[in-house]
C-alpha cells in the first residue's frame, strides 16, 4: 500500500498554468467555472476517474499542473461533449481536456504504459506517414506497445472481423503524402517562430532588468 | 433528376464500417442522390489527433474541405460521426479564431490549396430528412418493415457539441425516418449517450460498461434491434458481446446502420447491404410481404 499525502500544498502549484490553459482558443471560459458539478454528474465516465471533471476544472484554475497532467481523468474523457453542452457557464470542458492531453504528451508526464496515450501517439504517426488510418493495424500496434498480453485476448474479435470482411489486410494510404508532410511543417514552423518570439521577449525583459 | 454531393467516407467506412458504405450508396442512389468520393481524401484526425495537436487536426481536416470545395458540388456528406464533427469543428475554428485560420490558410497555400469556408458538411441523416424528404423516401418503400421494433441510437458527436440539424437532448430525425419505412420506434432515453468510443479497446472496463448500458436499455425497452448512424457506435455495440457477457451476462441484440434498414425497406438484398458483416445477426423480418413485390 502506498501512503500519499492527500492534501495539496500551496507549494505544489505551478504558477501561471491556469492562465496559460485559459488563453488557448476554446478554453477561454475556464475562469467562469462556478464549481456546480454538472460536468461530473453528466459524465458517463466520471465514476472511473481519480479526479472528477469539476475537480479538474478547479485544479487547472489553481495551477495544480502536475496533479492534473498525471491524472487518469483527462485520458478517460471519451470526447462525448455532454459536459460541454450542459455546462451552465458554457465552458468547453471537452476542449480543455484535449488541451490537457496535449500538454501531458508534450511534457511526457502522462501515466506510463497507459494504452490511451499510446493509441493517440500511434494514430498520429500513422496519419502523418500514410494520410489514412488502417484501424486494425493501429489497434495491433497499440496493443504491442502497451500490453502485448491484451493483444492475445483479442484474437477472437480479430478473427471475427476477418471472417466478416471487416479486417482489410492492405495498408490504407493517400497518393499525395508529401502534401500532408509539408502542411504539418508549416504548423511546426509557426510554433517555432512563436517560441522564438517569446524567447526574444524574455531576453529583452531580462536585459532591461539587469540594466535597471 | 440526380442530385450530386461530395463524399468524405473516412477510414472506418473502408474498414470495420464497410457495411455502412455498402448500404448508404445504393439507398441514396435509389433516392436519386449520387455521392462523388473526394479524390485522395485523408484521415479527418478523429479524437486522437485532437489529443496531440488541435491546430494540426484542423489543418488535416481543412485539406479535405479544400478538396471538396474544389470539386464543385454544393455540399459535402460525411457519414461517420467523428469525421462529421471534426470537419464541422474545423469550420467553426476557421470562423471563430483568426489565429487558427491564419495557420490553416498558410498550410493550405503551401500545397496550392484554398478554402473559403463555404462548403457545408452534412450528415446523411440530415440530407435524407431535410433535402430528400420523408415523402420521397416513403414512395420508394417496397417492403415496409412493419412490426420491427427499433431503438434509435444517435450517439454523441452527431448532436454534440453543435446541434446542426436536430435537437441535442432528444433528436428525432432517425425516429421519423424509420417510422416512415414502417418501423416501430421504442422510447429510448439513452439515444445520445456515449458508446464508450475508443475506450472499449484501450480500457475495457469503463469502455464496455458504456456499451453495455445502451444494449441493456434497448433490451429493457423491448427493441428487436438498435439502429445507429456511426461506424464506431456500431462496432462497440456489435463487436464486444463475448466480453460483455463474461462481465455482466448476455446482452444479445443486433445493431445495424439506419441505412441498412432503409435498404431492406427499399427491397435490396441483405448481402448487398452488408448485413452479413454484423456479429449479432439480424433476425428475419417479422412480417414478410407476399412475393411479386420488389426486386
Architecture overview:
The complex is a heterodimer of chains A (212) and B (295). By secondary structure, chain A is an all-alpha fold. Among the domains of chain A are: 10-107, Fumarate Reductase Iron-sulfur Protein, Chain B, domain 2; 115-163, no CATH class. Chain A is 60% helix and 0% strand. Chain A has helices spanning 17-22, 38-42, 53-61, 65-69, 73-76, 82-86, 93-107, 115-130, 135-146, 148-153, 155-163, 177-211. In chain A, helix 8 crosses helix 9 (135-146). The N and C termini of chain A lie far apart (54 Å). The model of chain A has no long low-confidence stretch (mean pLDDT 91). Chain B is an alpha/beta fold. Chain B has helices at 18-30, 46-52, 54-71, 81-96, 98-110, 124-132, 134-140, 173-180, 199-202, 204-220, 231-239, 241-248, 258-265; strands at residues 3-7, 33-37, 76-77, 121-122, 149-153, 184-185, 225-228, 255-257. Chain B contains 13 helices and eight strands. Chain B is globular, with a radius of gyration of 19 Å. In chain B, helix 3 crosses helix 4 (81-96), helix 4 crosses helix 5 and helix 6 packs across helix 7 (134-140). In chain B, the strands form two sheets. A four-stranded parallel sheet of chain B has the order 2-1-3-4. In chain B, strands 6-5-7-8 form a four-stranded parallel sheet, with helices on both faces. In chain B, 46% of the residues lie in helices and 9% in strands. In chain B, helix 1 links the parallel strand 1 and strand 2. Classes of the chains: A mainly alpha (212), B alpha/beta (295). The interface between A and B is large, with 62 and 64 residues.
Amino acid at each position: 500500500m502506498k501512503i500519499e499525502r492527500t492534501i495539496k500544498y500551496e507549494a505544489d502549484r505551478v504558477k501561471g498554468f491556469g492562465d496559460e490553459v485559459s488563453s488557448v482558443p476554446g478554453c477561454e471560459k475556464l475562469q467562469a467555472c462556478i464549481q456546480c458539478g454538472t460536468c461530473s454528474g453528466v459524465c458517463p465516465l466520471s465514476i472511473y476517474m481519480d479526479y472528477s471533471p469539476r475537480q479538474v476544472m478547479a485544479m487547472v484554475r489553481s495551477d495544480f499542473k502536475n496533479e492534473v497532467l498525471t491524472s487518469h481523468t483527462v485520458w478517460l474523457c471519451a470526447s462525448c461533449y455532454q459536459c460541454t453542452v450542459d455546462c451552465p457557464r458554457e465552458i468547453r470542458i471537452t476542449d480543455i481536456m484535449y488541451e490537457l492531453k496535449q500538454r501531458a504528451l508534450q511534457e511526457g508526464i502522462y501515466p506510463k504504459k497507459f494504452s490511451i496515450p499510446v493509441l493517440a501517439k500511434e494514430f498520429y504517426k500513422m496519419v502523418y506517414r500514410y494520410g489514412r488510418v488502417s484501424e486494425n493495424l493501429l489497434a495491433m500496434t497499440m496493443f504491442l506497445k502497451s500490453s502485448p498480453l491484451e493483444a492475445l485476448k483479442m484474437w477472437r474479435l480479430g478473427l471475427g472481423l476477418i471472417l466478416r470482411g471487416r479486417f482489410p489486410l492492405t495498408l490504407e494510404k493517400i497518393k499525395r503524402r508529401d502534401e500532408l508532410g509539408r502542411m504539418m511543417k508549416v504548423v511546426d514552423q509557426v510554433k517555432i517562430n512563436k517560441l522564438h518570439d517569446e524567447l526574444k521577449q524574455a531576453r529583452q525583459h531580462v536585459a532591461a532588468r539587469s540594466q535597471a | 433528376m440526380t442530385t450530386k454531393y461530395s463524399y468524405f467516407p473516412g477510414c472506418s467506412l473502408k474498414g470495420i464500417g464497410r457495411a455502412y458504405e455498402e448500404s448508404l450508396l445504393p439507398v441514396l442512389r435509389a433516392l436519386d442522390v449520387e455521392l462523388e468520393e473526394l479524390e485522395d481524401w485523408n484521415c479527418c484526425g478523429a479524437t486522437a489527433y485532437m489529443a496531440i495537436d488541435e491546430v494540426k487536426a484542423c489543418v488535416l481536416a481543412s485539406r479535405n474541405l479544400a478538396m471538396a470545395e474544389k470539386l464543385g458540388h454544393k455540399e459535402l456528406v460525411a457519414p461517420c460521426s467523428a469525421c462529421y464533427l471534426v470537419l464541422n469543428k474545423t469550420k467553426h475554428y476557421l470562423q471563430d479564431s483568426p489565429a487558427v485560420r491564419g495557420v490553416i490558410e498558410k498550410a493550405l497555400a503551401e500545397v496550392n490549396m484554398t478554402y473559403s469556408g463555404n462548403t457545408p458538411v452534412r450528415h446523411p441523416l440530415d440530407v435524407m430528412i431535410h433535402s430528400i424528404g420523408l415523402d420521397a423516401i416513403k414512395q420508394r418503400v417496397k417492403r415496409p418493415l412493419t412490426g420491427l421494433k427499433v431503438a434509435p441510437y444517435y450517439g454523441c458527436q452527431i448532436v454534440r457539441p453543435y446541434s446542426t440539424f436536430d435537437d441535442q437532448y432528444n433528436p428525432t430525425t432517425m425516429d421519423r425516418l424509420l417510422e416512415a419505412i414502417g418501423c416501430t420506434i421504442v422510447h429510448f432515453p439513452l439515444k445520445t449517450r456515449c458508446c464508450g468510443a475508443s475506450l472499449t479497446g484501450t480500457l475495457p472496463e469503463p469502455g464496455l460498461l458504456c456499451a453495455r448500458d445502451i444494449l441493456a436499455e434497448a433490451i429493457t425497452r423491448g427493441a428487436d434491434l438498435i439502429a445507429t448512424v456511426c461506424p464506431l457506435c456500431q462496432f462497440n455495440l456489435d463487436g464486444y458481446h463475448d466480453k460483455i457477457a463474461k462481465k455482466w451476462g448476455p446482452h444479445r441484440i443486433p445493431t445495424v446502420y439506419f441505412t441498412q434498414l432503409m435498404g431492406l425497406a427499399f427491397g435490396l438484398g441483405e448481402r448487398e447491404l452488408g448485413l452479413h458483416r454484423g456479429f449479432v445477426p439480424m433476425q428475419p423480418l417479422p412480417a414478410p410481404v407476399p412475393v411479386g413485390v420488389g426486386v
